[in-house]
Design a protein that fits this description.
This protein is mainly alpha-helical and about 425 residues long. Strands 1-2 form a two-stranded antiparallel ribbon. A two-stranded antiparallel sheet has the order 3-4. It starts with 18 loop residues before the first helix and ends with a helix. The model has no long low-confidence stretch (mean pLDDT about 85).
Length: about 425
């Protein structure tokens, strides 16, 4: 990676909320790597602590299937908290191994990333603020829901140690044993002191660490995606505002030099090519991330719906926690599906924006260049999962429909 200048707060598009990145050190991680090409201590510490917490937890949960009695309801409990642990590992690994690309993609948060003519500055700033507000709302929602999951899980632990160790079937029927936070098994006598206390402290620390980082990393990825949407939207404004002066066109035509409107179109074509190169890199970086989030998200949604419908229907606390898990995973799925759909719409709107310009008044050279750009912008840019599956709002609806179908099927099996 060639070294890049640091991004200052004045460089960032108006309205984009970045304090959480600064608070958790990721802003320093990005700028340090941009200027030195080296990972600083903060990202190394976050990676080390995350793997130290998550890897033993994930390993023991899947080992438990061979050690304790498990039915379909207990299996869903064991996976309900294991899958988010896998998610946080995947997210931090994407940051670690693709930090060079991620730092380059952060150029998208700059308000001067593409050329904006003076007469379009006000409209561009308005677009930046509107899209920044959209991004901020979902990011804040992710933090609120994750915080609610953390607080409710720690304050009201509701999983019986005796149920995990010795029982199957309906968890409500097991009233004995002390309660724990996560639905996990460990190779310890969890129902005895001091092992119970050790497990409780471990799970408390783990859920605090992982729950907060899940919201931080998902917001980081989402804001870069929304900034790409903002840049495409601003480019659309520039294209649609192209106007031709007939008298000037005759003058340039007689002198056999490029007209002013063609010069502006040339700048637009270069900016569009620049955005496409960043969109391709973003798709490459985010492909494994989106594949993991949507894949694991489907399983978590199915498990949460299953537990909500058939776990403890008479327990208000259990219902509330199940709804929080549904909300947490639903927000993550919505972030990427909505974000990708926004980018797809904005990038394909360039096709109509060109038609809205004064192309019919311009010379043949402009019209040919505009026609070629219309062909290139006919198909919008989207994120992909598994390298080929386009992600958009239709994907989100398909996920929710599939979740309901599988949950209904599992409930019939359980009956």
């Amino acid at each position: 990676m060639s070294y890049l200048p640091p991004i200052t707060e004045s460089d960032v598009i108006d309205g984009l909320y970045l304090r959480y990145l600064k608070f958790f050190g990721l802003w320093g991680v990005i700028n340090d790597y941009r200027t030195t090409g080296k990972r600083n201590r903060i990202i190394k510490f976050q990676l080390l602590i995350t793997l130290m917490f998550a890897v033993p937890y994930i390993f023991t949960q899947y080992l438990s299937f061979f050690v304790i009695k498990v039915d379909i309801q207990k299996a869903t409990f064991l996976n309900l908290h294991t899958l988010p642990a896998i998610q946080i590992c995947c997210k931090i690994m994407v940051i670690w191994f693709r930090l060079d690309s991620q730092c380059r993609l952060f150029n998208l948060v700059r308000k001067d990333f593409i050329y904006i003519p003076e007469y379009n500055r006000e409209a561009a700033n308005k677009i930046f603020k509107e899209i920044s507000n959209k991004a901020n709302i979902l990011c804040i929602a992710a933090f609120i829901v994750n915080t609610a999951v953390i607080i409710s899980s720690i304050a009201v632990p509701g999983i019986s140690v005796d149920y995990i160790l010795y029982h199957t079937g309906n968890m409500d029927a097991i009233t004995s044993g002390r309660k724990k936070i996560l639905g996990g098994w460990y190779p310890l006598q969890m129902d005895e002191s001091p092992h119970y206390e050790i497990v409780f402290v471990y799970e408390t620390t783990f859920i605090l660490w992982a729950g907060i980082l899940l919201a931080v990393y998902i917001s980081l990825f989402y804001q870069v995606l929304m900034c790409l949407y903002a840049q495409f939207s601003v480019l659309c404004i520039h294209v649609s505002s192209l106007r031709s002066d007939p008298d000037a066109e005759k003058k340039y035509r007689n002198r056999k030099v490029d007209s002013e409107i063609y010069k502006e179109l040339y700048i637009i074509i270069r900016n569009h090519q620049k955005l496409l190169s960043y969109a391709n890199e973003l798709r490459s970086v985010y492909n494994p991330l989106v594949t993991m989030i949507l894949g694991i998200g489907i399983f978590v949604l199915i498990i949460a719906v299953f537990q909500f419908l058939f776990g403890s229907p008479g327990n208000p606390t259990f219902i509330f926690k199940s709804l929080l898990f549904l909300a947490y995973q639903g927000i993550e799925v919505c972030m990427f599906c909505f974000g990708s759909s926004y980018v797809e719409t904005a990038s394909s709107d360039l096709h109509f924006a060109i038609y809205s310009s004064d192309w019919y008044k311009a010379d043949i050279k402009f019209q040919k260049a505009a026609q070629m750009m219309m062909i290139r912008t006919r198909k919008g840019v989207t994120l992909t999962a598994i390298r080929m599956y386009n992600i958009n709002v239709e994907t989100m609806m398909s996920i929710f429909q599939f979740t309901y179908t599988v949950s209904a099927f599992m409930s019939r099996m359980n009956e």
